[in-house]
Amino acid sequence: MRTVCANFYQYAGEVPDKVAVIEASGASVTYGDLYRVANRISHALRGEGLQVGDKVALLSSNTADFLALLLGAEQVGIKVVPVNYHLTASEIAYIIDSSSSKLLFVEERHLSAARRALSTTALPLDRCITLGYPTSAGRMFADFIDRRSEAPPPERVHGSVMLYTSGTTGRPKGVHWPAHKVDPETAAQSIDPMMALRGMEHDLDAVSIITGPLYHGAPLGWGLQALHHGHTVVLMEKWDSRSFLQKVQHYGVTTAQMAPIHFHRLLQLSIAERRRYDTGSLKVVSHSGAATPIPTKRRMLEWLGPVLFEYYASSEGYGTSITSADWLEHPGSVGRADGNGAHMKILDDLHNPLPAGEVGTLWIQNPGGLTSEYFGDPDKTAAARLGTYFTTGDMAYIDQDGWLFIVDRRTDMILSGGVNIYPAEIEDVMRVHAAIDDIAVLGLPDDEWGQRVHAVVVPSSTVEAGDALAREILSATAHSLAKFKIPKSLEFRESLPYSPTGKLLRRVLRDELTH
């Protein structure tokens, strides 16, 4: 059943008994209950003295409370900073301090890592609030919102999330959007036209499944917008191909948010096994996060039909999108250069425009010229801006008909399973090992993950290079980096290629290793 244009807050009033969220456990929350919890969160945040523009960090897996916190903060102008729960304590601490978060909300299962992180941050332990079951110490979420009003807060104003993204140099950066004095309803509905291009409609019968972690921008954005469009949101805690297909069949899932790695995993199932599940309810499969190999996408279209809606975007701004029909006419494209109201151009290293079909750096102007900034880092902000245009360093070309093709997602960035991995961060950690004279980390093609992390090491002259040394180096690295950042492979070389100006030539290495 389709409805007129609305948003979560209005749907909660119109259909309070409709199921809003189904967690991985099967537990469900209605629109009315989620709305009341969100309102209590809004009042509690203000009760803690937080103001418009302040930030709170959130360390949690996919739960209804995660979405309630987003909705509660969103309507009082407070920015939520989602934190990847796979990070180490030191990496979590960096984001808490870098973002100047005033509170940390943490799911009970991640409390140990959170406490280790807080021991090295400026945020006091009593500013940590635990989501989940009561613990022997610390503040509980139930107590935080206890006795708070369930009515909407006064003077409601929209607040966006602040996602942390990795660039080609430096540590992860918080993407900060300027505050706009608009109410949450107006903010939610302002991107309806763009969401429609990605397949999302206002529909009370729709069921959206979130297959990735909500700390990542694409699943988070789709989950929130699904609620603003009246959908029931089904949360997966972790990916499993059979579990996904079972949930699609059981709940009659109509829309899914996925990444190319999910396609790869699904296609690893035999045709006979895939046919065991009814996927006929699927009307929209939205995907992004990495380039989808053309053969993989063709196989998915042959299986599910023309339901794939691909889009290209980043934490820093908008992008473009493409339907199944348009993709079949322009295989490999991610959409038109003016597809979602943004304006795109391809420039060379001296910022000169390049002709159609020629590869260069992609620069994007958001609709209306709206720009974000890297929080607390004006130099990096300036380096990625050209007037009202921004770049993430992606290499691309626009063909003569205006279709955009991404050639290389962030020259140095590794995209593994749809997750950004920053090579220099890994190099900085590994370089302190006494056995390493020099190191380069890069992504190599991987059929399953898209890319895998690979390290090229120049060993010290005092050690013997070999398997034993490689194991020792990787074992030491595991103490300082999240598991997904640790190189999956390592090789030794006598030297690394550098330019005359001393710049490491990763592309030379990549070409040598892939050809």
UniProtKB/TrEMBL annotation:
Q: What residue stretches are annotated with the AMP-dependent synthetase/ligase domain?
A: 10-375
Q: Which SUPFAM superfamilies match?
A: Acetyl-CoA synthetase-like
The protein, known as: AMP-binding protein
- Which InterPro entries does this entry report, sorted A to Z? AMP-bd_C, AMP-bd_C_sf, AMP-binding_CS, AMP-dep_synth/lig_dom, ANL_N_sf, ATP-dep_AMP-bd_enzyme
The record's PANTHER family line, in alphabetical order, gives:
LONG-CHAIN-FATTY-ACID--COA LIGASE, NONRIBOSOMAL PEPTIDE SYNTHASE PES1 (EUROFUNG)-RELATED
Q: Where is the AMP-binding enzyme C-terminal domain?
A: 425-503
